[in-house]
Design goal:
Blueprint: H1 2-13, H2 19-25, H3 27-36, H4 39-52, H5 64-77, H6 80-87, H7 94-101, H8 106-109, H9 118-126, H10 129-141, H11 157-166, E1 174-176, E2 186-188, H12 199-210, H13 213-224, H14 227-230, H15 263-274, H16 283-296, H17 317-330
Antiparallel strand pairs: 1-2
């Protein structure tokens, strides 16, 4: 146990590398130092480290239930500017990645003698209303979406990271599976052995963690400091919705659909439509349609207004007079 504590202190207090080099390259160490400068963060972090490292008996390395409770208090009561920096810090070497993996004291809060079946672990989580709610949030906010730029629903990295952190401190606690600085893979402590005819469902559940592009991109973006631009508070949905097409005014009856349009006219009108301008309140769209009708009918001086539908030509006055005279002679 003494060796185990010494191992933990090695990663929590610093490595044997040059301090000047570590301060520049180990972002996880910087995050721990920042937490120590905040009274609330330092207090709650020291509390869960102490509880999760306290051996109960030779056969029970710690009180896992109390460890989970202390972790939940830390992530629930400390602002994300401290907890996220420790949990999602970017790393360039294995020493930094191991410090990141050790953030939640996995020997007590995460690992066990044997890996349970993932579906059994999920069922256990669903019996607790808070764990069930946190797991549902994770599936909703970290669901891989191939209709968005970031692979996250509504391109919201922060929602996914918050849902991931919210599951820490429960039986389904996820963590980094190794100390790889670049190949980010996270998973609950479980496997799909013994799933029987439910193996496909079990593998699908496990892939929501291990092969989730939304979660992986969110962690990498936070560590690289690029999540600010990709996770707006009010995300734009233009990337996921089809462009809106405005209803074009009717053309005159004597104009067929196959009439060719000039390139400049098409470009002008297309740009107006893409801006979402409406026919009833846009002078530009009226100009656009006027431009269309005058360019399509060479020599035509008459301007067709957008609001006016196709109108048939009225009989001329001369034709009306001739018809009247013929009717009179017949009588």
């Amino acid at each position: 146990m003494i060796l185990a504590n010494a191992f933990c202190l090695f990663f929590f207090l610093g490595t044997g590398a040059d301090p000047a080099v570590s301060a520049k390259s180990n972002h996880c160490l910087d995050a721990a130092k920042a937490c120590n400068l905040n009274d609330n963060c330092k207090k709650l972090r020291s509390s869960y480290i102490s509880i999760c490292n306290r051996e109960i008996s030779p056969t029970e390395r710690c009180n896992r239930r109390k460890c989970h409770k202390a972790l939940r208090q830390f992530f629930d009561r400390v602002p994300g500017e401290y907890t996220y920096r420790m949990l999602f810090c970017s790393c360039q070497d294995p020493a930094c990645a191991e410090r990141r993996r050790q953030t939640i004291l996995p020997s007590c809060s995460y690992e066990d003698k044997e890996k349970p079946n993932c579906l059994d672990l999920r069922s256990l989580c669903r019996t607790d209303h808070l764990c069930r709610s946190r797991l549902a949030d994770f599936h909703a906010n970290c669901r891989a979406s191939y209709r968005t730029l970031t692979s996250c629903p509504t391109d919201n990295y922060q929602a996914c990271l918050g849902s991931y952190a919210g599951m820490i401190g429960f039986d389904i606690t996820p963590n980094y599976v190794d100390s790889s600085p670049t190949g980010i893979v996270v998973s609950p402590w479980c496997s799909c052995r013994g799933s029987g005819n439910m193996e496909e469902e079990c593998e699908k559940f496990l892939r929501d963690f291990t092969e989730n592009p939304c979660l992986r991109n969110a962690i990498q973006a936070f560590g690289n400091g690029t999540d600010v631009n990709l996770s707006p508070k009010n995300p734009s949905f233009q990337a996921t919705q089809a462009p809106r097409v405005e209803k074009t005014p009717s053309l005159p009856d004597d104009l067929s659909d196959s009439t060719s349009l000039g390139t400049s006219v098409i470009t002008t009108c297309t740009s107006v439509q893409e801006q979402g301008l409406k026919a009833n309140n846009s002078k530009e769209l009226s100009m656009c349609f006027t431009e269309l009708t005058t360019s399509i009918i060479p020599g035509n001086k008459r301007v067709v207004k957008p609001n006016s539908g196709p109108r048939r030509a009225r009989p001329s006055a001369a034709l009306t007079a001739v018809s009247f005279l013929m009717l009179k002679l017949a009588l």
